[in-house]
Amino acid sequence: MSTPDYMQCAEDHQTVLVVVQPVGIVPEDQFFKIYKRIASVNQVNIRDSQRLLFIRYRHHYPPENNDWGDFQTHRKVVGLIAVTTCASAKEWPQTSERFHGQKEVYGSTLYDSRLLVFGLQGEIAEQQRTDVAFYSSYDNCPDVEKRVEDFVESIFIVLESKRLDRATDKSGDKIPLLCVPFEKKDFVGLDTDSRHYKKRCQGRMRKHVGDLCLQAGMLQDALVHYHMAVELLRSVNDFLWLGAALEGLCSASVIFHYPGGTAGKSGARKASVSQAADAGKRHRPGAQEVLIDPGALTTNGISADTSSEIGRAKNCLSQEDIIEKYKEAISYYGKYKSAGVIELEACVKAVRVLAIQKRAMEASEFLQNAVYINLGQLSEEEKIQRYSILSELYDLIGFHRKSAFFKRVAAMQCVAPTIPEPGWRACYKLLLETLPGYSLSLDPKDFSKGTHRGWAAVQMRLLHELVYASRRMGNPALSVRHLSFLLQTMLDFLSDQEKKEVTQSLENYTSKCPGGMEMITLPDGLKLPPVPFTKLPIVRSVTLLNLPLSLRPHKVKGPVGQNMSTKSPFIYSPIIMHGRGDDRSKKIDFQWVQGDVCEVQLMVYNPMPFELRVENMGLLTSGVDFEPLPAALSLPAESGLYPVTLVGVPRTAGNITVNGYRTSVFGVSSDCLLENLVGVKSSGCMLEVVPSLPRLQLSTSLPRSAHSCGEDMSSSVCVQLFNGETQQLTLTLENIGTETLETLDVTSKVLSTKEKLFGEFLSWDLNQAKSCLPLKPGQSLTLTVNIRVKLDFSGQENLLQDLNDDGISVTGLPISSPLRQVLKPRTENKPVSTDTSKTEFSHIKTLEAVLYFKYSGGAGQVEGYYREVTLGVKVDVEPSVFFTRVSTLPATSTRQCHLLLDVFNSTEHELTLSSRNNEDLLLHASECQRMAIQVDKFDFESLARLQTQSEQTALGSSSRRQQEEERQQAQGGYINSKLDIRWSIPSLRRQGEASVEGVLNQLVLEHLQLAPLQWDVLVNGKPCDCDVVADCKVGDAVPLEVKLTNHSKNTVGPFALTVVPFQDYQNGVQNYDLQDAITFIGSNTFYIDTVNPSDDSVCVGALLFLYTGDFYLNIKFQEEISAGRELPPAWFCLPSVHIKAQEAVEAAA
Amino acid sequence: MAVCIAVIAKENYPLYIRSVPSQSELKFHYTVHTSLDVVEEKISAVGKAMADQRELYLGLLYPTEDYKVYGYVTNSKVKFVIVVDSSNTSLRDNEIRSMFRKLHNSFTDVMCNPFYNPGDPIQSKAFDSMVSGMMVQAC
Q: Where are the annotated segments for Disordered (chain A) (predicted)?
């Protein structure tokens, strides 16, 4: 006996063995269908004896095992059911022949046999035989079960008779010696009459009877017989049979203790019919009988009744004893090499019992022992079977690791090199079963949490084996999946060399079968989830990028507070804001635009020791139609963090969520979802896509500046101008988008600068551009912008520093040479050293401004979005001319004055300066000249009045100082416009204006201002001013009229004026002693009463010249009465009167 | 002396495993891995009886043809496994116990290191050299 039945369990001892075999040609599936139906009759309730008979069916049973039937009767084939196909009656004799042949094989032990013939029906002329049944077809055989039951009953009858026969004839004839096959030759020539021999015969027979009783369902009898057998055999040291008797005892006890069976689920017995009937009491059939006649022991059941329990206790082994006896039995078996199979099977049975008792440690000892039982030369198939059953048993006792180990050994055995046809499929299947034992699941999600913790070395080995097995199975998709799993989960444990090898073989496999993201389902239903390569490369952060500044959509602001009111009734509440922060945290506060390329930046690094090529890297999004534009990248070995920008175009508007990214590495494409990634920093992945907007491209007539002035500028131009120059900038705006541009708005902003800027820096006329709207895609429009720089011409900052303390005062000092002295060496220095040239450059001032073009159109406009393109304008202003000094000289007329400007040409070119009604002034480089311009005095009051009227409405609340400044500025502008000073550099053909606005100070302004008190002196009724000489005749009374017009806001006066006549000899001598030359008619003092604002007052007197001559009248204020002391002296500026007195004749001539 | 020494975390993954370099490392991985079945069984069996004062030393886990596997469990359920060559019959139980005690002391030192993160593989040099001392030199 060489083939162990690893499926055996203790309760198999009480079964009878029936072999079901096909005879002739029977289709396999049909046979197994019938076999299944037959096998369903595995326990039969014998009608009259209330006993249960258990049947074990085998479709294959080696006849040499049958030879051990005497040793343990459940190994004996007692029934044969043959299944055959018989197409016609002609074949019948042949079939019948074969059946008989089949019977011969097990002939010595068979109690009964049956033949099931399919295909014929009643066509056989032969008389009805009980052992043959005819069915027309495999599908039409309703009473197979019934027939099998009958058959079993007939077997029972034989069994029962045998039992009774053996049990009773102990005193009669000589008891034959039962023996196992290998013993037969040992007993040749032994003394059969010795006591020892007889005892041995008796003991063996007892054991045999015990077996029969057990099979026949008489448990108690069996126990008794086994006990007796043990005692008999122990005394004669018949160890093999002693072992068998002990095992029988154990089996019977196990059957008693564990009516549910020990074989586990697959072998679980059907609950017997009667048990179901009164399950509550757990009564077995025959329990009643036990009570009535305990001695009869005709029950196979157990009873909950203690009375019967007591009677049994002495026979039945306790749970601990069972194991003890098993150990003993196995140790006896171990003495015989040929009983290896028996020993092995006993171990297996004991383990099953122990598994039920949950005594894993002891069970493992039995198994350990079983491993070492040598069964001689085993075929490969048997080895596999043995290892897998070991694995199964280890699993049963909860030793999953050990179980996995043996399963793996079994798997390896399947493909051992000695096997001509390796069973890769079986190997693969077994390997899959080992996965739980190595705590390995094939779902990469289980490994994504934290660092991998497990038996990496062992697991890697297993995965390698899976890969290899699946490849040999001819399923490259599977091996790709396993290999990518290996790479993904075990990356940390692979050495550099292994990484190379694994990726190389992965590339080899994928060249045949690219890996994808679909679930692979194995034929046995196991699903292999896809393995995304989240570690190749490793992504550290995901950032959604805003659109470039010029393409960013802006929301048209609604009425103030509209947003607020919808959110909360409170203007501000930290609690609500905080709570809102959570659900908003994922939403990003900028927008993408439909149809525009949007970017997401990933920071990745390559953990591999070689260059990693990632292909088809694209974004995975949801919510909006998104067209990803995949990129390919190549990451250097062990790279640091490496920025990768993935782009795509949203095709519709709405909320978009970036879920992850897609890669293709080593031919495996993977979808990596961000939610499954560990350690990824992300600032949120959801944002809004607004409907499409037009796009404007801006080009300018001026060269673009190399560096952008501000980072938030789309583009910028740079231009160099002389102070005061004006430049035209032509802008071309082209609609390069797909939407029609419908609105355009231009604004500008001068970036805060320290320089004082006069006039408007940038100016344009939008009307012409607007007439081009709407602008269709591809069309363009132009806009002209004037750049006008007018900075301070005073040059105080630069020059005054140089002249620091020469106490410059606007009016007083003569033109000083220090300026030239200081400046000249500077200009000479210029080419010598670059350092100084740099400081020289500081003269160049920079002005920056931004032009904003807001535009919108298409669907985005409907939603209230617009775009803004900006143009930075940077102007380097070189100084042109400076007014180094400004002073005034009173002109001859009180209504006029001379403005003296010291003009300095700071350029390196010749420069001409012109002003209104003045001839041009030529200035060489770095030359300073004085320029005098006669100007009418200005009536600022009226100007201010005009201005304040308009300003008061606009800037009601501006501070006084500001107002003052503005007033001064306005005055400056006014003066400047009157002066209209222009410069031009003929060599460069450039020209511009020069403004005195910043130069004028308060004092000058006052001088230029027309005093609010206007004094008019009339001699002889003619107005008399500085240069006008009034003629009068000697002897005639000359009326002198002084008229005061009050333009100020307050009433002035009263004033007292004294007229002092004098003669100027033009040599510095003035003669005031003129009492005999001039006589006043009346008083020489004029009194002017209080004059109300915008009123006038006149006082009249008269003079009488007694001699001819040139006289001057000096009109003075008498200080005592002068109430207008607080008024500025400039207000009391009366014209000097020049009178020429002549003889009447002279005058006539 | 030992041919393989392993420290296994509470969750049954290896914190440290070292074997004599001459033999296949994988084999020892398998040996130690399968021995965990027995360790677990022993812990659960003992745990039921007296949870507080159980013996840390588990004794011989299982013998194989070539090796004997011994186990030891700390109170924090960290397991130590020592694999000894079967041919080395001179090794007594007491010696094995003292080896485990040494191992436990050294492991405690490792745990005391504030920079050691419990659950991470042990990379301590002191521990390593102690283990080296226990391993066979000749083999």
A: 951-971
B10 burial (CB, 10 Å; 0-12 / 13-18 / 19+) is middle
Is 80 exceeded by the pLDDT of residue A1083? no
CB contact under 8 A, B25 and A361: no
The residue range of the domain holding A465 is 446-531
A 432-491 near B (Cβ less than 8 A): 438-439, 453-455, 457-458, 461
Number of CB pairs, chain A paired with chain B, less than 8 A apart: 47
| Residue A930: CB atoms within 10 Å | 14
Produce one character per residue of A675-690: b if its CB has 16 or more CB atoms within 10 Å, e if not.
eebeebeeebbbbbbb
- Residue A405 forms contact with B (CB below 8 Å): yes
Task: Give me the CATH number covering residue A627.
Answer: 2.60.40
Contacts with A197 (C-beta within 8 Å, 6 or more apart), sequence order:
A177, A190, A191
What percentage of chain A reaches a pLDDT higher than 70? 79
Question: A211-225, A463-477, A832-846: which has the minimum mean pLDDT?
Answer: A832-846
Can you give A1037-1105 as a three-state secondary structure string? EEEEEEEEEECCCCCECCEEEEEEEEEECCCCCEECCCCCCEEEECCCEEEECCECCCCEEEEEEEEEE
**Does residue A84 belong to any structural domain of this protein?**
yes
Closest-CA residue of chain A to B16:
A455
Query: Domain limits at B12?
Result: 2-134
Alpha-carbon Rg of chain B, whole angstroms?
14
Least CB-CB distance to A454: which of B13, B42, B119? B13
> What 3 state SS string does A380-441 have?
HHHHHHHHHHHHHHHHHCCCHHHHHHHHHHHHHHHCCCCCCCCCHHHHHHHHHHHHHHHCCC
Instruction: Verify that A1110 and A1083 share a domain, yes or no.
Output: yes
- Domain boundary (A326, A349, A376) is at A376
Question: Could you tell me if the ipTM is greater than 0.85?
Answer: yes
Q: Exposed, middle or buried, B106 (CB in 10 Å: 0-12/13-18/19+)?
A: buried
- Chain A positions touching B15 (Cβ under 8 A) are none
Q: Residue A943: what pLDDT?
A: 60
For the stretch A758-789, pLDDT in tens is 777 888 888 887 887 788 888 888 888 888 88
| Helices (runs of H) and strands (runs of E) counted in chain B | 3, 5
Asked if residue A560 has pLDDT above 60, the reply is no
CATH of the domain at B27: 3.30.450.70
How far apart are alpha carbons A322 and A319 in whole angstroms?
A: 5
CA neighbours within 13 Å on the CB side: how many for A550? 19
CA pair distance A328, A222, nearest whole angstrom: 19
What pLDDT was estimated at residue B80? 92
User: What is the per-residue DSSP string for B11-79?
Assistant: TS-EEEEEE-TTS-HHHHHHHHHHHHHHHHHHHHHHHHH-SSS--SEEEEEEE-SSEEEEEEE-TTS-E
Enumerate the residues of chain B whose CB falls inside 8 A of the CB of residue A453. 9, 11, 13, 119
Asked if residue A397 and residue A366 are part of one domain, the reply reads: no
* Cα four-point dihedral sign B32, B35, B37, B40: negative
pLDDT at B112: 92
User: pLDDT grade, residue B46 (50/70/90)?
Assistant: low
Task: Let me know if residue B139 belongs to a domain.
Answer: no
Domain stops at, among A668, A690, A712? A690
Cα–Cα distance, A982 to A912 (Å, whole number): 8
Q: Are A925 and A1018 in the same domain?
A: no
A 343-382: CB under 8 A from B: 360-361, 364, 368
CB atoms inside a 10 Å sphere around CB A1125: 8
